[in-house]
Amino acid sequence: MEEIEKKAEFEALKHTTFMALTDIAKKVIPSLDMTEYLSMLQQNFEAEKNRIINRTIRGED
Hints:
This protein is mainly alpha-helical. Helices cover 85% and strands 0% of the residues. The protein has 2 helices and no strands. The chain has helices spanning 2-28, 34-58. Helix 1 crosses helix 2.
């Protein structure tokens, strides 16, 4: 159960952060396509996660 709670907490934090970033970006760039921006955030998140995993596996962290 603790694992499920940690995963839910992480996903909620990620979602809230992405939405806050989208709100800020939308105010700065009114013509911003929110779907495209959220997709970019998700891709960047996944790339960073993979980078961290790979560095950890190689013992660089």
